[in-house]
Each structure stands twice: as C-alpha cells, then as structure tokens.
C-alpha cells in the first residue's frame, strides 16, 4: 500500500523512536512481553511497515464486495442491526416458551434454543442415562408435542429460531418444521438455523452419538433437504465457539472452523453432486468473542476474507453469496468468573463490542450468572440490554468496519490469517479434517493451548480479576435460577402420555422406513419427518441411527 | 527393595455433559506432577467408572460434572464403589457445583470438592497430603 521510499522512512523513524523511548525512560515497560489472550505477541506500535503487503482492492475493499473483509452487507448495521439472539431454554417446553415470549417482549429479535443434555444426546427423558439431567441445562424435548408447546403463540413465519442441536439435528429440525406447518407457517417462510456441526463435536464440544463418517452423511442429507425444501433455513452453523471454549487460541478457532467448513462443502459436492452455489449461501458460521478486543476483531475480519477466498478459489463458487461468511457470535463463557460475578457484565460488554466491530450478524451476550447456572430473568435482561445499548446508544454502528486501515488492526488481521492458513495447509496434508480428527490433531493442539493458558493463570502471568488478582474473601451473593426437581417427573409423565395416545403401529412403520433409508443412500429427512408426525420420540429415532451407524466413543485424548 | 508404587488416579466424566476442558487440565496436571493417570473420556455411566476404578486398582477417582447432575452422579459412583468392596478409594469432584451442595456430597462419600478458581498446585498438594498408594 506504500511506496518503498515511504516505508524506508517509516523504518528509520521507528528505529529513532525506539532509541529515544529507551533513552528517555530507561525501563519503559511493565512486562517483558505483551501478548493477546491467545499469547500472540503484540508490538508497542504499528506502522505502515506492518501492512506493506496489503493491497486495498485485493485485501480490504468495500463492504459487500469481495473479499468481504469489511462485511458481507453493503450497508452494514446502517441497513440492519445484528439480531439480538439470546440462547435460552430450561425446564419444560412451557417454561421456556414463557421465557421466550418475555424476551421477545423486551426487544429480542431472534430466538435461540438451549436443549437439555438428554435432548442434545438423543435420549428420552425417561432413559436411565437422563437421570438428574432433565430440564437442567436447557429445555427437554422428547416429541413433537414438546416442540408444539415450545413454539406456542410464537409466529414462526416471522421470528427466526436457532437451535443448538448436533447429533439429533435432523430430528429436532423435523419437529420444528412440522410444528411450523401445523401453525400455518409454510417451509418457504420459516427461517432459522440448526447447528448441525459434528466435526467440532469430535474436536471440542463432545456431544456425539454416531461415528464421524455417518455423522457427516446425516449433515449432508439435511443440507440437501434444506436446499430443496426450506430455502430460508441455515442448515448448518459451522462453529468455532466450542473450539475456543475448549481452550483453543483465536488462530486455532479460526483455522479449525474453516477447515471444518471445507470438509462439509466437499462432502456435499461429492456425495450429493450439488452445485456449490446451490447450497453454499445457506451455510452459516458461529464464533466466540473472547476478552481480547483487537484480537477478536481481527479474527472476524480475517474469517470473512479467508472464507471468501476458499469458496472462490478452492470451490470455484460464482455467486457472491456463496462467499459470504455470515456468523452468529457468543461472548466467551470461559472468560467469565464465578468469583465476583457482577464483573462479568463488563467482560461481556467488551466482548459484545468486539463482535460488533467485527461485523457479526447475530449476537448472544452471556448473562452475568451464566458461569454458575442457567441465567435468571434479572441477569438475562441485563445481557439483552447490553446489546441494545451498544447498538442504539454508543454510535459504533454509524460507520461500517470502523477499524479498517488501522495499522494495528490490519496488521493483526493479516497475521491471524497467515497463521490460520498454515494450520489449514497442515490439515489438508493430513487428508482433511476427518483424518486430522482421527489422529487427534486438533484435539491435542487445543488441549495444549488450554493447559498453557491455565498454567499462566495459576502463575499469575495472565490476570483474571477476582481469580488470581484483587480477590475478596466475601462474595456478593447472586440469586440463581433453580430448575425444580419436579420437572423431571412431570416431563416423564408427559412423555408417557404421548406414547399412550399415539398410534404405535404407525410409529413402528415410520421407524422401519427410516431404518431402510439409513441403510440406503436416500435422504433421511422425509422419513424423519414422517416419524416425527406420528409422535415418535427423539430417542426412538436416534436409536435407529445408533443401530444402523453405530456409536462413537471418546478416545479421551488429554 | 522395590520402588514405592505411584499413586494411581482415575479421572472420569460421568453423565452426558461434554465439558472436558477442566478435567483434561487436571489429568495433565497430575501426570506432570508424577502421578499415574487414566482418563475415561466423556459420557461415562457411574457403573463404567466404578468398574474402571476397580479394574485399574486406583487410589483416587476424580469426577467432573458441569451439568448440574453432580449430586446424583457422584453419589452413585461412591455407592457402587462401596458396594463392590472398594470403599477405600478416595473420591474427589469438581465442576459447576453450588457451595450448598458440598455437605451432601461429602456425606455421600466425596472426600473433597474443588470449585472454579482452584489451581492445579492446590489439587496436587491436597492429593499428596491425603492419598497414598495402597
């Protein structure tokens, strides 16, 4: 971006400046080394020399134009503010439905579902494996009846719903589609997202059911089905969030997420013979926004530029929308502290700001008590207001990609991009992400980073306020949401009642047909939808998957 | 003279939650401190954990749960170990555990509960003081 003559002067000036600083201050720095939360070393000052290889047209450009570094929408937040979308769910479907309607009343603009662990893992509420877990970490959904209660009085043709669901994504999506249809909302109108990203489960979140290969097949089935029948649905949310929560660095989060994306696109192209431009516009992403403001902003910008290049150069996409990296963001749960929990509001605000300056399409802000329990209504309201204040009071949305051109932010964006490409190349050499996961490569990389970070916190080298610095003996009490033990018995009763009144012969037939579809190369979605319509339970459907595809066991890398 | 046997530790994740960042850090911390460590991986039933503890004749079982099901799951592991004549195995736990649940866990046979903010050094030192090889 600069003439060599200018750069020469900058370098001379830099040297002079460094000498002067040293001379005048003696010991100018409080630390030997300054680094991001991911341990990326940061210089005292950045200059044109740090962005000398950047080309404005090629690497930065304008919002809404390739390579989309500055955002996928030409109008940024001036055209439309990101979606205020708070991840929520607890107890029974009616408990969560009440919380959802309150959130919508308070100005939330999109829904996001937290399911309990039995639902996430494909077990019914009365399975022995579900004991003490029902309704605890999210809402319990066993059959279509629960999905209907969950979405009651919510206009599904107008509100978009995100569902954090992975191994049983096809099942919960089918339930949602049928519930919407019954409500009168056609599949051409409903919009939302299923997370449906199994690779990051094997890498980080560890919610898995079947082995990797059939898991990918189920994902490609949903992508194909969405492409043909549910045009406004994001059939996958390729997620870095959990990779980061598991302790990765920002670079690893970015690299592993995009490598997962590459694996999914390749599978749909190979298995379904679909044109990349037919389905790629409905692929969406999900990132973490951690506490290091500039590192995160740089990561988001790098992510957009890299995905655009991957889609254009590697997969030969022609439709610009196929090159769009649209993403949801959640502030970092792992940056919050159980100690002095009210401080978490400040952390979350900073992280929300990073997501917004990085151009997110949708945002979840953590509640201050989320490190201790599911959010209370009081806490979730502050989390929502945090977003509304950032969007509607601070003025940060006035101009698009406001930090473009900063020597530091551009330099860091390029540095993160470069380091992420190195990882992607290594993964390519291993034979792609599936092969890399089989040898534990991303898992061990993340575990190493997590261990290093913990050592830094334990030694005090990295500060966590209230944990290893500024500690207090007395804790400020916070009132936490308690999920009543009665939820489990109530939910089990409800499930039994559904099983009693349905037509069990039709259920058996639908499951039989599904089993046959699983064994063939047919798309399973129509069969799952039929089973769901007959009120087959989630586990009955997932047991078919387990039976045909087998179960995955954690190899326990550490 | 045979060298003194090392303390053997089973680190386990009972239940359905997959949050294994903390538990793996603890496993590695123990290994680096010279203990013999076995890690079960996620999604273990209490029965699987008790069986593994007996089969591997460990001295300590470390349980981690972040889903809120700790009262049921930890107590089950303790009960099963006792039932199978392995009541002398020390059991510790950690995770997102409300302070008010700690007395009930101790009553059930969990010797110590480590909450968020605990350092590896604290866990290792506690183990050195409280657990010796059988």
Outline of this structure?
The complex is a heterodimer of chains A (558) and B (134). With 558 residues, chain A is an alpha/beta fold.
Describe the structure.
The complex is a heterodimer of chains A (558) and B (134). In chain A, α4 links the parallel β1 (83-88) and β2. Chain A has a nine-stranded parallel beta sheet with strand order 5-4-3-2-1-9-8-7-6. The longest helix of chain A is centred in the C-terminal third of the chain and has 24 residues, at 407-430. Chain A is an alpha/beta fold. Chain A starts with a helix and ends in a 9-residue tail after the last helix. Chain A is built from 22 helices and nine strands. Helix content of chain A is 51%, strand content 7%. Chain B is an alpha/beta fold. Chain B has one domain: Cobalamin-binding domain (Rossmann fold). Chain B contains five helices and five strands, in the order βαβαβαβαβα. A five-stranded parallel beta sheet of chain B has the order 2-1-3-4-5, with helices on both faces. In chain B, α1 (21-32) crosses α5 (120-130) and α2 (46-55) packs across α3. Chains A and B meet through α5 and α18 of A and α1 and α3 of B.
CATH class of the largest domain in chain A: Alpha Beta
CATH level-two architecture of chain B: 3-Layer(aba) Sandwich
CATH superfamily of chain B: Cobalamin-binding domain
Low-confidence stretches of chain A: none
Percentage of residues in strands of chain A: 5-15%
Total of DSSP H or I helical runs spanning 4+ residues of chain B: 5
Q: Kindly, what is the distance between the CA atoms of the first and last residues of chain B, rounded to a whole number of angstroms?
A: 17 Å
Name its key features.
heterodimer; A: alpha/beta; TIM Barrel; B: 134 residues; alpha/beta; Rossmann fold; five-stranded parallel sheet
């Amino acid at each position: 971006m600069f003439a060599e003559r200018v750069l020469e002067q900058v370098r001379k000036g830099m040297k002079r400046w460094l000498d002067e600083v040293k001379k005048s201050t003696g010991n100018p720095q409080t630390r030997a080394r300054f680094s991001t939360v991911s341990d990326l070393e940061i210089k005292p000052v950045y200059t044109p020399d740090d962005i000398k290889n950047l080309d404005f047209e090629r690497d930065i450009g304008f919002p809404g134009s390739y390579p989309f570094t500055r955002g996928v929408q030409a109008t940024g937040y001036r055209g439309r503010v990101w979606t205020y979308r708070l991840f929520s769910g607890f107890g029974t479907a009616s408990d969560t439905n009440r919380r959802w309607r309150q959130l919508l009343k308070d100005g939330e603009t999109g829904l996001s579902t937290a399911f309990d662990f039995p639902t996430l893992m494909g077990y019914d509420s009365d399975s022995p494996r579900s004991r003490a877990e029902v309704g605890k970490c999210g809402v319990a959904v066993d059959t279509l009846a629960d999905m209907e209660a969950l979405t009651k009085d919510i206009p599904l043709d107008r509100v978009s719903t995100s569902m954090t669901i992975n191994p049983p994504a096809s099942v919960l999506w089918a339930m949602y589609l049928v519930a919407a249809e019954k409500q009168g909302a056609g599949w051409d109108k409903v919009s939302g997202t299923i997370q449906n990203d199994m690779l990051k489960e094997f890498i980080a979140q560890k919610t898995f059911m079947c082995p990797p290969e059939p898991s990918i097949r189920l994902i490609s089935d949903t992508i194909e089905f969405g492409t043909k029948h549910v045009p406004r649905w994001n059939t996958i949310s390729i997620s870095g969030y959990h990779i980061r929560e598991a302790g990765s660095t920002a670079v690893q989060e970015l690299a592993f997420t995009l490598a997962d994306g590459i694996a999914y696109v390749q599978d749909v192209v190979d298995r379904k013979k679909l044109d990349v431009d037919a389905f790629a516009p409905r692929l969406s992403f999900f990132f973490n926004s951690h506490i290091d403001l500039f590192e995160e902003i740089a990561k988001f910008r790098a992510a957009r530029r890299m995905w655009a290049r991957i889609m254009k150069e590697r997969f030969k996409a022609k439709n610009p929308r196929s090159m769009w990296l649209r993403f949801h963001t959640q502030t970092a749960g792992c940056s919050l502290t159980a100690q002095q929990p009210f401080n978490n509001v400040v952390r979350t605000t900073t992280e929300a700001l990073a997501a917004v300056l990085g151009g997110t399409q949708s945002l979840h802000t953590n509640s201050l008590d989320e490190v201790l329990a599911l959010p209370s209504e009081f806490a979730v309201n502050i989390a929502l207001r945090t977003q509304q204040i950032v969007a509607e009071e601070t003025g940060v949305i006035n101009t698009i990609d406001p930090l473009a051109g900063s020597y530091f932010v551009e330099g860091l964006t390029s540095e993160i991009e470069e380091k992420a490409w190195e990882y992607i190349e290594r993964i390519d050499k291993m034979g792609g992400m599936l092969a890399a996961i089989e040898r534990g490569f991303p898992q061990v990389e993340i575990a190493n980073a997590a261990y290093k970070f913990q050592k830094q916190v334990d030694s005090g080298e990295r500060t966590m306020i209230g944990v290893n610095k500024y500690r207090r003996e007395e804790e400020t009490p916070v009132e936490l949401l308690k999920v009543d033990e009665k939820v489990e018995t109530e939910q089990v009763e409800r499930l039994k009642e559904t099983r009693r009144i349905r037509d069990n012969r039709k259920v058996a037939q639908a499951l039989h047909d599904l089993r046959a579809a699983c064994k063939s190369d047919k798309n399973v979605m129509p069969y799952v939808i039929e089973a769901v319509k007959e009120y087959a339970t989630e586990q009955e459907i997932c047991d078919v998957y387990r039976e045909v595809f087998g179960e995955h066991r954690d190899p326990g890398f550490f | 003279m045979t060298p003194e046997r090392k303390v053997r530790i089973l680190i386990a994740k009972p239940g359905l939650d997959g949050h294994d960042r903390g538990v793996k850090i603890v496993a590695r911390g123990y290994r680096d401190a010279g203990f013999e460590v076995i890690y079960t991986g996620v999604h273990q039933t209490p029965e699987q954990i008790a069986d593994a503890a007996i089969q591997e004749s460990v001295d300590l079982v470390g349980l981690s749960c972040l889903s809120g099901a700790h009262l049921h799951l930890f107590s089950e592991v303790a009960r099963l170990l006792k039932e199978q004549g392995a009541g002398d195995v020390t059991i510790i736990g950690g995770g997102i555990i409300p302070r008010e649940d700690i007395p009930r866990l101790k009553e059930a046979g969990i010797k110590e509960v480590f909450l968020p903010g605990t350092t590896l050094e604290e866990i290792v030192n506690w183990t050195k003081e409280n657990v010796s090889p059988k």
